[in-house]
Design brief:
D-isomer_DH_NAD-bd; NAD; oxidoreductase; about 325 residues; alpha/beta; 2 domains; about 35% helix; Rossmann fold; NAD(P)-bd_dom_sf
Length: about 325
């Protein structure tokens, strides 16, 4: 990131520690044209969220960029009203999340965490007590086949799995092009040996996987999610596992992150749990930093970018851009 900015001496990069006080950074915020922010709420104090209060301190701000596909730390509606563009880095960590997803499928199916725990505990036990299953020949159902889902499809096929997918945002041909057989959600739940979530957290997906959805899954099926907390009901999932209807789960995202140590799901041996780390790799962080840097520079140069989350802000933004730089951005007509 630093190397890219060095090629643009006309751009000044200022890093603000999250422990700073807003008042101490007033001059920087007052002058800022672009704002890069973490997309993780647990890593970012609320005073730094890109909301109406922060925008009031940054009258020259033209764009906000998040460090991932999520944008939980950004009030998009407030930014749109202010004529501030919001961008994410969707796809920059897709390979990392996809590999984590396959790791969870393998881990739960082969009972790796249980094996590790039992071995460290010592004592006498039979290897047959920890017998797992192969992925080959199993059907994996992907709920969402975007940047991450299509990579999961490719990895799953390498393991000899059948891949089906439900994605209401894509037509059947696109789903096929991305490596899966398109099906309705009801068929996906009924057919899948493993159900894996790769959809965004939105109004229409909150609580999508409730008790009825888990009940519709095949007996003994596995549930894996690297999407967002709140899309599945943690209580309903715990009930489905406790009853034996589901065979196991791999969970990377939680309602509260990190989850409390007394969380029922953390006490279940057939649950592999991680702390929203699916996309946290050296390679992904490098990609995100590079993508974000280039995107911010191109935006300040007046380009219209593909990962723009609020294109409806463009007309107001274009006028503000002209007021600051004395020229209109490339696609001011938008």
């Amino acid at each position: 990131m630093q190397a890219i900015y060095k090629t643009r001496p006309d751009i000044t990069l200022t890093t603000l520690p999250v422990t700073s006080r807003l008042d101490d950074c007033a001059e920087v915020l007052q002058a800022a044209h672009a704002y890069q922010i973490s997309s993780a709420k647990d890593e970012t104090p609320p005073i730094w969220f890109a909301n109406e209060a922060l925008l009031a301190r940054a009258p020259n701000l033209l764009c906000v960029s998040t460090s991932g596909s999520g944008y939980d730390t950004v009030d998009i509606e407030a930014c749109t009203r202010a004529g501030v563009l919001v961008m994410n880095q969707a796809g920059a960590n897709a390979q990392s999340v996809a590999e984590h997803t396959l790791g969870m499928m393998l881990g739960v199916n082969k009972r790796l965490a249980e094996n590790d725990h039992r071995l460290r505990q010592g004592g006498t036990f039979s290897r047959e007590d920890l017998m797992g299953r192969e992925l080959q020949g199993k059907t994996v159902g992907l709920v969402g086949i975007g940047h991450i889902g299509k990579r999961v499809a490719a990895l799953a096929k390498a393991f000899g799995m059948d891949v089906i997918a439900y994605d209401p945002l894509l037509d059947a041909d696109t789903v096929r092009e991305r490596g899966a057989r398109p099906v309705a959600l009801s068929a996906l739940l009924a057919e899948s040996d493993i159900v894996s979530l790769h959809c965004p957290r939105k109004t229409d997906t909150l609580g999508m996987f409730d008790a009825s959805a888990f009940a519709a899954m095949k007996p003994g099926a596995l549930f894996v999610t690297t999407a967002r907390g709140g899309i599945h009901s943690e209580a309903a999932l715990a009930d489905a596992l406790r009853s034996g209807h589901l065979g196991g789960a791999g969970i990377d995202v939680w309602d509260v992150e990190p989850p409390p140590l007394d969380h029922p799901l953390l006490a279940m041996p057939n649950v592999m749990a991680t702390y929203h780390t699916a996309g946290v790799t050296h390679e992904a962080r490098r990609n995100i930093a590079t993508w974000a840097t280039r995107q911010l520079i191109e935006t300040l140069d007046g380009e219209f970018l593909p990962r723009l989350l609020n294109p409806e802000a463009w007309p107001i933004y274009a006028g503000r851009y002209y007021a600051i730089f004395g020229k209109y951005p490339t696609k001011a007509s938008r």
